[in-house]
């Protein structure tokens, strides 16, 4: 992750903010992942007002970023804030085997273990629902391989996963992307995603709370957007596609993974599915209305579909592209010709 260098005044402010015992330790901890004020208070064993004051100074200097999720306030290392370059450099310079930092990291692991246990308890309570649906379609590995194949073709700069759920898509692309962001409406699912990403050692992805219909993200920001098994829960899928298209960079790609039309009414009654799959032509018209150009469509039918597998689920993958670069390239080619 490369950040822009800093001017003299910002560098001085940043160094002053970082140049204090507790704040440097806070920076080291936040470098390991997103943490709440109360988690940082627990790790460092100091009072909450004191920790909050230090965090405020680090945030004002642009070394860390603060964001709210329901009643919780999280801190993460600066990525978009001006101090990102200094944060990156300071974290790089910290010896991983330093005694102070090692002790803090041990306490961090204990806090994370408690957080993961809490998240897993929530997930376990709902896991049967996911499993029941998974059993109805081709194995998950096959779907994941198809997602990879659809997006093959080089490293991804920035990836946005809408309705991230367990954070699985971010984990899947961790080695192929520079930076990943997952959005979900549910604070409980975000806790599950954070625990999973921590466990998998994924450092280049963050998750945050947000609504797929109205993303608190700038336009033209992501190279790839993925919407995996989310649209069938929504009242207004085309609106979600338009919002996904808004945040795509020129030439960026949107991958929608959902179901082909089916007749499993119980998914509506018991699992809150709003739509029983989507016909390819409907999805393609929504993609076109959002200003995207459909690129490919693939169906993954269950093996015994049509025999004993009547009524089972066929997974459908649509890939579409923002045409703006394509137009610029075409213009360029016309000029060169
Ligand atoms: C079946 S799970 C998604 C699975 C996930 N994409 C994956 O690949 O494993 C659907 C997710 O969509 C989220 N969701 C539903 N409506 C949403 C909305 N309006 N905005 C953001 N997330 C939403 C739910 O909270 C849930 O975590």
Automatic annotation (TrEMBL):
Listed SUPFAM superfamilies: S-adenosyl-L-methionine-dependent methyltransferases, Winged helix' DNA-binding domain
Start and end residues of each HTH arsR-type domain: 3-97
Annotated InterPro entries: ArsR-like_HTH (IPR011991), HTH_ArsR_DNA-bd_dom (IPR001845), Methyltransf_11 (IPR013216), Methyltransf_Superfamily (IPR050508), SAM-dependent_MTases_sf (IPR029063), WH-like_DNA-bd_sf (IPR036388), WH_DNA-bd_sf (IPR036390)
Keyword tRNA-binding recorded: no
SMART domains referenced in this protein's UniProt entry, alphabetically: HTH_ARSR
CDD domains assigned to the protein according to its UniProt record, in alphabetical order: AdoMet_MTases, HTH_ARSR
Keyword annotations: Ubiquinone
Annotated Gene3D superfamilies: Vaccinia Virus protein VP39 (3.40.50.150), Winged helix-like DNA-binding domain superfamily/Winged helix DNA-binding domain (1.10.10.10)
Annotated Pfam families: HTH_5, Methyltransf_11
NCBIfam families: HTH_metalloreg
Protein name: Ubiquinone/menaquinone biosynthesis C-methylase UbiE/DNA-binding transcriptional ArsR family regulator
Organism (species): Ancylobacter polymorphus
